[in-house]
Amino acid sequence: MDVTTLISIFIAVLTAVCAIFGLIIQRKTEKIKIIESQLSEKKYMAYADLVGMFYNILKDVKKEKKSDSTIMTERMLEAKKDLFIYGSDEVFRKFNEWLCYTNEYKDDNKHMKYFLELMLLIRKDMRNNKTFITKTDIMINLIQNRKEVEQMKHYWE
Q1: Residue ranges per domain, the chain?
Q2: DSSP track, the chain
Q3: pTM (2 decimals)?
Q4: What is the pLDDT of residue 131?
Q5: pLDDT the model gives residue 20
């Protein structure tokens, strides 16, 4: 065999190896994207369930209806599990901070500070830190009365 033939064979083998590596890398990249998408969807659902639970409690309060504590306990335990598995570290820690504060200081309205920080972290996590919503904006959304919100601001500032 002459040198030209050997070079041609080498180039053909090198091309085949590169093509195989390219396919392997492409498949691994696709798998990673699928897994990230699934995790993102599960995180979104965990956050949506948690926020939904708070809004359901608010709805019951506005209707002057007592929430079923058994159902709320089950939903809270499920939220804890989902946040542990899918939530960001920052959201998980803020959720724990809020839970501990509400448990230790039951009659202190300062827990609103931790609640609002949690809601902001969830929103930031879902929007890649791109949100201009403030704690006051969230409270206006919840209470729907600017004067009351202004009177309560000292709880979260």
Answers
A1: 88-156
A2: --HHHHHHHHHHHHHHHHHHHHHHHHHHHHHHHHHHHHHHHHHHHHHHHHHHHHHHHHHHHHTT----HHHHHHHHHHHHHHHHHHS-HHHHHHHHHHHHHHHH-TT-TTHHHHHHHHHHHHHHHHTTT-----HHHHHHHHH--HHHHHHHGGGT-
A3: 0.74
A4: 86
A5: 93
